[in-house]
Amino acid sequence: MALAAGPEAQRGKLVVTNIGLLLTGALEAPLGDADTIVVESGKIVALGKRADLDTENAATTIDAHGCAVSPGLIDSHVHPVFGDWTPRQNQFGWIDSCLHGGVTGMVSAGEVHLPGRPRDIVGLKALAITAQRTSAAFRPGGVKLLGGAPVIEKGMVESDFYELAAAGVTLLGEVGLGTVKAGYEAKEMVAWARKYGIQSTIHTGGPSVPGSGYIDADTVLEADADIIGHINGGHTALPLRQIRCLCEGCHRGIEIVHNGNELAGLSALRYARELNQMHRVILGTDSPAGSGVQPLGILRMIAFLSSFGDVPAEEMFACATGNTARMRKLEGGLIEVGRAADLVFMDRAQHSSGENLLDSLRKGDLPGIGMVMIDGIVRCGRSRNTPPAERIPEIL
Ligand SMILES: [Zn+2]
Question: Which CATH class name applies to 73-295?
Fold first, then answer.
């Protein structure tokens, strides 16, 4: 069983040094030149060249041995239920397994797989509040799951959104998975949610599983949710001309998921690049789902989109980290002073034909993970799920 993060906190000063490649998570400058990061109380307090930093009196020193360090990956689209269990594939430990794929943060797109999920308004509000509370209090492997994403239903009124926000709910589940499927109805509720600080995601494309719905580009544009959820369908995608309309017709988040249509995902990426709007691209898995659970899903997306989409791998890392953190207002996602020390240590996988980590991703290979840290606490060493990395960090 995965360990829950209770009141534990990082103590003393932590220094990470000998970083070979710094992936910043910032799309505008995705590669940094720092070789050392200093962490205190779970936050990055300094970064730069070791000689320029105060690294004395560290309680813990980690020698990265030339590995790359990236912000922890953020899965923008998951369907959790409670704890580290998913009824969709009747699997335990899926979140902890994703930690071994470099994922340190997840955002719920709705606790839709709960058997007997309530669809009445008081029931769906109660579920959302419960899911928000449980995900905040129980963190498998330390992974930060932002949960409690209600699926809106017909009959909800403005005061429902006020109540949800007052109770601590910050997200809507995928619009369109409930009875609200028409653009004009969704638009009103999305606006109420936004008024009270609740972020929204809309389902895009054909139904995912029996009971889910079809949402076309006109509906997505009319509803005006903050994130165009799985723009490449989950699984059935809209025609490519509609996906292009979505990219051109609004400024909302372009979310590409693992469990969607790969051709459509690649096309959405190309449209975003043509529009010079890569800052809108974020990545998710849309798991657990009918397609299963993908512990390496975000890494696979980075390798797939970088290799087939001909995009520098460091930019795809930014899509999977900093873009999502900025859009979702999360505390990690970027390696900069003041951010949470959620870090992934990686290197080229053993026997990859790539010349280095970034080149191996451009050739479609997955990297090897040697360590994952959340809030300045080492959560795992060499990943049990990735191919073995050539170099791994060491706690001195
Ligand atoms: Zn969906």
Answer: alpha beta
208 falls in which pLDDT band (50, 70, 90)?
Answer: confident
**Which one-letter DSSP state was computed for residue 366?**
P
pLDDT for position 199: 98
User: If you write DSSP's letter for every residue of 261-273 in order, what string do you get?
Assistant: -HHHHHHHHHHHH
Type of residue numbered 120: D
Token pair for residue 127? 């579920």
CA–centroid distance, 292 to ligand 1, in Å, is 14
Superfamily of chain region 13-71+332-395: Urease, subunit C, domain 1 (2.30.40.10)
CA 365 – ligand 1 centroid, Å: 28
CA 109 to ligand 1 centroid distance, Å: 8
Asked if residue 6 has pLDDT above 80, the reply is: no
Q: Quick one: CA dihedral 161, 165, 169, 175, positive or negative?
A: positive
State the pTM of this model.
0.96
CB-based contacts of 393, cutoff 8 Å, min separation 6? 16, 62, 63, 64, 65, 67, 345, 370, 371
Centre of ligand 1 to C-alpha 351, Å, is: 37
- For residue 134, the CA-to-ligand 1 centroid distance in Å is 23
For the cut 70, the answer to whether the pLDDT of residue 2 exceeds it is no
Q: How confident is the model at residue 3 (pLDDT cuts 50, 70, 90)?
A: very low
Q: Are 124 and 118 in contact (CB under 8 A)?
A: yes
Whose structure tokens read 């005061």? 159
Alpha-carbon distance of 285 to 88, in angstroms, equals 14
Domain spans in the chain, listed from the N-terminal domain onward: 13-71+332-395, 73-295
- Is the backbone of residue 323 left (phi > 0), alpha (psi -120 to 50) or beta? alpha
Ligand 1 centroid – CA 230 distance (Å): 7
